[in-house]
Amino acid sequence: MERIYLDHAATSPVHPKVAEEMSSFMTNTYGNPSSIHSFGRESRRLLDDARAFIAKSIGAKPNELIFTSGGTEADNLAIIGAVMGNKHKGNHIITTKIEHHAVLHTCQYLEQEGFHVTYLDVNEKGLISLEQLSAELTDQTILVTIMYGNNEIGSIQPIHEIAKILADHPAVFHTDAVQAIGAVQIDVQEMNVDLLSMSAHKINGPKGTGFLYAKQGIRLSPLSFGGEQELKRRAGTENVPGIIGMQKALELADLGREEKAEVYQDYKRTMLSIFNEEGIGYEVNGEMESALPHVLNVYFKGTNVEQLLVNLDLSGVAASSGSACTAGSIDPSHVLLAMFGKESERTKASIRFSFGLGNTIEEIEKAANETARIVKRLTTR
């Protein structure tokens, strides 16, 4: 049976060129970058080169990057680090109801520690209200953390407008860009953010590798202690092979980004066209065009998400109900709950298709036809 992978927003296959780059490093250059001998110096040189390249790719300075084990650690370091580093200024955090759980659960932890958290509402397109954000800001607000692009529905928040609102406010501005990097152009200077999180495995890089951009001058308390790596901001020997792989993945992601985005938009249109031709009841959650190009979230009327996923998997199509961190759970999507309310059937019958390396238009057509066949069978019982 042909298997079709349409869950790239959960994780993506490692690009062959990334694997080749990492393999060459692991077999030939294995020194600890903190060691002073020639083996260590060679690892340090490659690490410094990767740091300079990655920083330049997002408009940052090399010393503004903190390498982490991925997006979750980057989010935790950004949020807890900024809050603990600035708690003398206030105790209020602002986020949204549709953040990744790496952000939401971290904010909930800080609530238990005595901090006050405001969770902004979103509309049916998955977008916050700038007016509500402005109204919730107080002189106690020390951190605003709002994701760039949503991992379940692809909605893109008005990051530039948020930055303008915060321009005259002392609060630190963090954005989780894990799902956006590689899909859209990221320039931290133009965005005017203070902190930005990234994970390599979303862009055909290795798992267990990511980074946090921390603007120079931002107070950030470390979460781990030991050595003096990452300018004393994140202890532990750097994952140099993973960082080398992340560098290559970012380099490849930059090539033909706009062309790939148009291909993925075409995949979306193709799927929906087939759904229309087959006459099944569906609605798109969020927006089609002004969203992350590789994410398509669809509500299929009269079905339920567990049946859909099981039947799709049996037919060889890998899709998702949303965040991979809730895999195995049949709880309604917190993103769709925030958008449509707990009474909406959308929260129980929506599927995320996400596209990436290796997908073809033929696969998309087959997956769409299989989906239509399954939906028809489930709704005619």
TrEMBL record:
Keyword Glycoprotein applies: no
Stretches assigned to the Aminotransferase class V domain: 4-366
Gene3D superfamilies for this protein: 1.10.260.50, Aspartate Aminotransferase, domain 1, Type I PLP-dependent aspartate aminotransferase-like (Major domain)
What reaction does this catalyse? (sulfur carrier)-H + L-cysteine = (sulfur carrier)-SH + L-alanine
Pfam families in the cross-refs: Aminotran_5 (PF00266)
The entry's keywords: Iron, Iron-sulfur, Metal-binding, Pyridoxal phosphate, Transferase
Which cofactors must be present for this protein to function?
pyridoxal 5'-phosphate
According to the UniProt entry, its GO molecular function terms are:
cysteine desulfurase activity; iron-sulfur cluster binding; metal ion binding
Give coiled-coil spans as residue ranges.
Answer: none
EC numbers: 2.8.1.7
Q: Which InterPro entries match?
A: Aminotrans_V_dom, Aminotrans_V_PyrdxlP_BS, Cysteine_dSase, PyrdxlP-dep_Trfase, PyrdxlP-dep_Trfase_major, PyrdxlP-dep_Trfase_small
Record-stated family: Belongs to the class-V pyridoxal-phosphate-dependent aminotransferase family. NifS/IscS subfamily.
**Know the name of this protein?**
cysteine desulfurase
The lineage, from the top, is:
Bacteria, Bacillati, Bacillota, Bacilli, Bacillales
